[in-house]
Write a structure and sequence with these properties.
3 helices, mainly alpha
Length: 92
């Protein structure tokens, strides 16, 4: 691993610094290492593509689910009409 010799000053609030410090400690690494790893793994374009794909899949699934519910409700309504017709013809 190359020796770090450049600085990137970043201003954060005291609450943000505390959160970063806690997350770094929980990950058993320094804040610098934690921030380096976080920055190197961040891919906004890829994340957006993944989210768009998930949203597209959710919309397709929701449409299929809605159609299935509509079909089921139509079937139940037709079934209820058949039952009512049979009951009206039934002799007591």
């Amino acid at each position: 691993m190359a020796t770090s010799n450049e600085r990137i000053p970043v201003l954060v609030t005291s609450q943000e610094k505390a959160l970063i410090a806690r997350m770094a400690k929980d990950a058993h690494m320094s804040m610098g290492e934690f921030l380096r790893r976080a920055a190197s793994s961040f891919r906004p374009g890829e994340d957006e593509k993944i989210l768009e794909g998930m949203i597209d899949q959710m919309l397709k699934t929701s449409a299929r689910t809605s159609a299935a519910i509509d079909d089921t409700l139509s079937f139940v309504e037709a079934s209820n009409k058949r039952i009512a017709a049979m009951e009206s013809r039934r002799m007591y």
